[in-house]
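Posting for a labmate who doesn't have an account.
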Amino acid sequence: MEDRMEQKNMAKTFVLVKILQNIGSSWMFSTYVLFLTTSGLSLFQANILNLLYMSVSTVLDPFTGNLGDRIGQRKIYMTGLLFWAIGMTVYGLTNWFLIFAIAEITSAVGHAFMSEALESWLRNQTDEEITHKALTTSQTWGKLATIPAAILGGWIGAKYGFGIPWFLAGATSLVCLIISWQQLRKYPDKIEEEKAAPIEMSVWSIAKNAWKEPVLKRSFILAALITAAVQPFNMFWSVIFKEASGKADWLGLLWMGIALAAALGSYLAKKWPVNSKSLAMIIVTIGVPMCLTVIKGNWIVLMLIPFIIHEIGRSSWLPILFSYTNRKIDSRIRTSVNSLRSSACTLGAAGGLLVSGGLTNWISPVSVWGVSAVMLLLIAIWVWRWNHD
């Protein structure tokens, strides 16, 4: 009973830390692409910058995850928070493309250290039920917690300059680092050594063995495909809605709708059964609304409502996939394998950025959304046909 209570306390600490992390990243959510375009960059150049971020994350993620299994997930998570705070601050220093690139690389290093580290730590310390509930709860409250910062960031950016939200993001991330360190140090960093057969700890060996496991192999491919498909939704929404409305100062308020929908989706993820059929249905709930955004006519609301609705499904798939795949992962290499999946996500996102950015030379950003939506529906059909869980 005491162990169970300790595990629940760990889960509560995890939720608190992830909420703080979300707040630290949310100041520039509604103005990121606008900051780049008002600095003289085209949408394609903005995508190239984000492609740089995704590419660095893709390369580093397996190695930082492996490092977490060797020295402890909390240590690499804290390191990631520090790099993230530095990257946010650097972004606001100027409007030079080179500085933007340096900031993207620094932030990517931070992302690689943080990704899947704390989630893997919690899953090693607790069971699937506690971890899954903590993941969905942290996403629900984390999204809600971004609303004030995103609204203020949008307003401050529109009124005083789009660079200021980056400084606020950097400062908040440093506060998050301090509080997180104080809260997490109460708990063990690594699981006790298990009396089991020795396991190969090299990144290449772990990757080869994970690829042989059907569930993990499919999860890597699925993660890459989904992130490739949804990346245009990330990159184009602020530009699309600014052009449709003629002004930018309301985009922070739009983030409130996005965050509320995402919080609802994370809450509903607690209710979905953890299996492939659930994943397929969730992907459908992302794709169908985004198909409708293409048929907008002259009414911005006909594009706005489906866009907000798609966030419900968008925030549900990752917790389900995490719990689904972690049944197949040895606890001694959990961060390594989860980081491989995270690397597949950023690889897919990089491909999605490259393709969608190129497509904007020929078709409108809204039309690119339609292409992505159809891709998601095809992915859902593939996942539904998976034979076993």
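Reply:
Got it, the structure tokens are right above this. The chain has 16 helices and no strands.
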